[in-house]
Design a protein that fits this description.
By secondary structure, chain A is mostly helical. Chain A has helices at about 5-45, 45-80, 85-115, 125-155, 170-175, 180-205, 210-245, 250-255, 290-295, 315-345, 355-360, 365-380, 390-395, 400-435, 440; strands spanning about 160, 165, 265-275, 280-285, 385, 390. Chain B is globular. The chains are: A mainly alpha, B mainly alpha. The interface between A and B is large, with 71 and 73 residues. The complex binds CIS-heme D hydroxychlorin gamma-spirolactone and protoporphyrin IX containing FE (2 copies). Chain B: One of its GO terms (biological process) is aerobic electron transport chain.
């Protein structure tokens, strides 16, 4: 069998970027949460806020470290596997990606060290300021990278001269038509991730009756936040979809599993898309609902996939099902947040074991939803890389052979397996160990700068290691 | 651009970034290479502790270099990375393992020997890959019409293997002299002992490469032997530094060996740069051929000029905070 470098490169890119993406999405949300905790402590001087802040900063340090390591790989991917694309789009993407790095530098250089190691060494106000700046830094970082990605979806502000994009208007290129939707949707996704993880961990501690006071506070706070954000995400997602309908109708057709352009298009709940025959093998749907959602009118005409030639269609089943996973989980999140509100009556929120268990499980859902969302966006754009202007095959590194691509794909999978295992294993230990007392934390002074060293949980139980958590 | 040549400004910035990276990540990679030869586990602790506060910052120069190249000289990015495809993967894999080992070795007891291995192999592979890149750069690349057209292993020649091992030895030398400065007692004594051997190794490789390069690349021959030039100043100064290292070690100076090694690197680097300037994608393309559009270079320059001073200040500050000797058994629990 001939190894296809294009397919292998796509798999490789999807793999490394998905691996990378799960870390930032969490750190963006968590950084803001930590800043809020510091703010609350600053205002109320209640030590429970400080204990929470210190604990979550430890988790943040580990996750941030993994994000940096996997991000370094990303910045070389464009050159190794997509060199034609790199060459063609460097005038715009180069500055965007460099600005992301520059922002990250600025962050690490200036404020991360103070946040991680400054407790007790700098005045409380300065520490709070550093926490806020770290949170702001994560947004700026997301800003640049999403500008790059959105531009590839809905390119604007550039001129194609001799096969290379030249920027004619920076603000049009950066604030391209889908940027504001994608940015808000992504920021909300990050907050939902942070919120559900914190809620899940707090629920777990409450089930074990550890640190009850602080964890009740954390849980209550998260649930209020989720009650607002989960529905907001659905609304923003709806607008995002309408925008996509305008600029990338084929992608929306794939999301809806709709083959023929027509009115009264049903909203499919279940379908098995059959791309070979350009139809759905099975479909169960609610009549006219897709027309209503997308055109606000049952008569509304929704474009179908057959508007373009089969070679120009994305892999329909993948887009279709990823979209359902994301939206399904989004709706579940709304339900859980509302259930939390309901349980507040009579204070059952902190006692209801079933609900607390559910929250524990919910903490993985945002990661799944985020990846599903990216799969919709990225695969729905296929075969285009820069929508309408450059396709994937044109973008590939000409000298790349299938064997080379396979070699590095296996290589990255192996390296990430080890790193991921070590990181997750270590995070579980940090969470098991739980929050520490003020004095305990105070005693730990050390090297600044390196994210992971903010945490002092031992990696394994060899001789001489402190006993980890009391439970288990 | 109103008389200002952005390509030259960017070449200086990237050139500065590269030498910063080589010097700073060089000594911590070097310590990784020396790791298995250390006299005992206590010495390994000292070695790691001496770079622990700074290595992360050292590596950020690499990331800036990667992204900066895409922004300022996309041709370099889109030729070097495909041409060095396998090498780039090895470099990244090495750096990842090393980074993770740095973090978890201290927190590990039962599994510590595994992290020791990850640290050593990660450093060694990363250093070799970087040295091979230098070799490949000197050889030049098969480029047609701005696209790399060579094979996956073109870069791997006897010459680039030699430069790979050469840089490993060079980094080990940097690591050893760094350790002289940062340690005391039996660790320092060991570092003093190995430095002359490493220096001899580096000089041997240096000599072979110097004799070999003109044959690998005739343009370089022309530049060095065409007419007597100031260019000969660099190897002479580099040799001067080598003599200085040797004497400083003999008279048991503590800081000078490291400073002189840094000098050795800088002059060798400048020698390499002038043999190629202004070609950036050898054999044919100059910095002007490789540049992105001027408006893009300018747009990026603003941010970079703003951030580099901050990063430099912060770097200097970290080194200042962690100045002084690292003692056995100090630091971590
Ligand atoms: C700046 C650009 C950029 C950004 C921020 C992202 N991607 Fe992307 N993505 C690409 C640029 C890109 C690309 C270079 O354009 C790819 C490579 C091949 C392709 O089709 O597009 C791609 C492909 C691609 C594919 C495979 C599509 C296919 O080949 O059919 C997946 C699943 C993802 N991406 C997922 C993600 C995730 C989870 C991201 C979250 C961070 C993400 N992308 C961010
Ligand atoms: C495919 C494109 C991407 C590339 C090339 C990329 C590259 C990088 C690099 C090189 C770093 C490390 C910088 C450092 O040294 O600190 C990094 C970290 C980061 N990235 Fe990405 N990234 C990509 C996608 C994304 C996306 C989609 C987001 C979020 C919207 C994102 C958000 C972040 C954040 C917040 C950090 C800071 C570190 C962290 O929180 O883990 N990146 N990225
Ligand atoms: C509940 C209703 C939701 C709707 C209607 C919705 C809608 C959409 C649409 C239409 C897209 C594709 C946009 C495009 O590429 O053109 C998208 C992408 C995405 N969604 Fe959702 N979404 C919902 C919930 C969620 C949730 C709960 C999360 C995560 C916590 C999430 C995370 C993402 C991400 C990360 C992307 C890719 C980035 C982007 O294009 O914005 N979504 N969403």
């Amino acid at each position: 069998m001939e190894l296809d470098p294009l397919l292998l490169s796509r798999i490789q890119f999807a793999f490394v970027v998905s691996f990378h993406a799960i870390f930032p999405v969490f750190t963006i949300g968590l950084a803001s949460y930590i800043a809020v905790l510091h703010g609350l402590f600053y205002k109320t001087a209640n030590p429970a806020w400080e204990r929470l802040a210190v604990f979550w900063t430890k988790v943040f340090a580990v996750v941030f470290g993994m994000g940096v390591v996997s991000g370094i790989v990303m910045s070389f991917q464009f050159g190794t596997n997509w060199s034609n694309f790199a060459q063609a789009s460097a005038n715009f993407l180069g500055p965007m990606l460099s600005y992301e790095v520059v922002t990250a530098f600025f962050l690490e250089a200036g404020f991360l060290g103070v946040l991680l190691f400054g407790r007790g060494k700098v005045p409380q106000g300065v520490h709070l300021f550093a926490a806020i700046m770290v949170a702001v830094g994560t947004f700026i970082s997301a800003f640049w990278i999403l500008a790059a990605n959105s531009w590839m979806q809905t390119p604007a502000g550039v001129e194609l001269i001799d096969g290379r994009f030249h920027v004619v208007d920076w603000s049009e290129a950066i604030f391209n038509p889908s940027f504001s939707y994608r940015f808000s949707h992504k920021v909300l996704a990050s907050f939902l991730t942070g919120g559900f993880v914190v809620a899940g961990v707090s629920a777990w501690y409450l089930l074990q009756k550890r640190d009850v006071e602080a964890n009740k506070k954390a849980l209550s706070m998260c649930l209020w936040l989720l009650l607002v954000l989960a529905p907001a995400q659905a609304v923003v997602g709806d607008f995002h979809g309408l925008n996509t309908l305008e600029h990338q109708p084929t992608k929306v057709a794939a999301m809806e599993g709709n083959w023929e352009t027509s009115s009264h298009v049903p909203l499919l709940l279940f379908a098995i898309p059959d791309q070979a025959n350009q139809t759905n093998a099975v479909e169960i749907g609610i009549p006219s609902l897709a027309s209503i959602i997308l055109r606000h009118d049952p008569e509304g005409v929704v474009p179908g996939l057959t508007e373009v030639a089969p070679e120009e269609q994305p892999p329909v089943w993948l887009v279709f099902w990823s979209f359902r996973v994301m939206v399904g989980l989004g709706l579940l999140m709304i339900l859980v947040a509302v259930a939390g509100l309901w349980l507040r009556r009579g204070g059952r929120l902190y006692e209801h074991r079933g609900f607390l268990q559910l929250l524990r499980l919910m903490s993985v859902t945002p990661f799944v939803a985020v990846l599903a969302g990216w799969f919709v966006t990225e695969t729905g754009r296929a075969p285009w890389l820069v929508y309408g202007l450059m396709n994937q095959a044109e973008a590939l590194t000409p000298s790349l052979t299938g064997g080379m691509a396979l070699f590095t794909l296996i290589g990255y999978a192996a390296v990430y397996a080890v790193v991921f295992w070590a990181g997750v294993y270590y995070l579980t230990r940090v969470v098991r160990q739980g929050m520490q007392d003020g004095e305990e934390i105070q005693g730990e002074v050390e090297r600044p700068m390196r994210p992971l060293s903010a945490s002092h949980t031992p990696f394994d139980d060899g001789p001489g290691s402190a006993a980890p958590g009391t439970q288990h | 651009m109103g008389g200002i040549d952005l390509a030259i400004i960017w070449a200086v910035i990237i050139g500065f970034g590269v030498i910063m990276y080589v010097l700073m990540d060089g000594f911590d990679l070097g310590l990784g290479i020396l790791f298995p030869f250390a006299p005992d586990e206590a010495a390994r602790d000292v070695m790691m502790n001496s770079v622990a506060p700074v290595w992360d910052g050292n590596e950020t120069w690499l990331v800036l270099g990667g992204a900066g190249l895409l922004g300022a000289f996309p041709l370099v990015y889109s030729v070097f990375l495909p041409a060095l495809y396998i090498g780039v993967f090895l470099l990244l894999a090495g750096l990842i393992f090393r980074g993770v080992a740095f973090e978890f070795r201290f927190k590990s007891r039962a599994n510590r020997h595994w992290w020791n291995r990850a640290f050593c192999w990660g450093s060694a592979v990363a250093a070799f890959a970087q040295g091979a890149v230098v070799g490949a750069y000197i050889q030049g690349f098969a480029v047609e019409d701005f696209v790399y057209v060579g094979g996956p292993l073109d870069w791997l020649t006897p010459f680039s293997v030699l430069t790979g091992f050469g840089l490993m030895a060079g980094y080990a030398l940097l690591g050893a002299t760094w350790l002289i400065m940062k340690s005391e007692g039996h660790v320092q004594a060991w570092a003093y002992r190995i430095t002359p051997t490493l220096l001899a190794l580096v000089l041997a490789v240096f000599l072979i490469i110097s004799l070999w390069t003109p044959f690998v690349n005739p343009d370089v021959w022309e530049r060095w032997f065409g007419h007597i030039q100031l260019i000969w100043l660099f190897p002479v100064l580099a040799l001067g530094c080598a003599v200085l290292i040797y004497q400083a070690v003999r008279s048991r100076r503590e800081g000078l060996p490291f400073v002189a090694t840094v000098g050795l690197y800088i002059f060798t680097y400048l020698g390499l740069v002038v043999s190629k300037w202004p070609v950036i994608v050898p054999p044919n393309y100059t910095i002007w051929d490789a540049s992105s559009a001027p408006e893009s270079q300018l747009f990026l320059l603003i941010g970079v000029l703003f951030v580099i001073p901050i990063v430099l200040t912060y770097t200097a500050w970290t080194y200042w905070v962690f100045r002084g000797k690292v003692k056995v058994g100090e630091g971590y629990h």
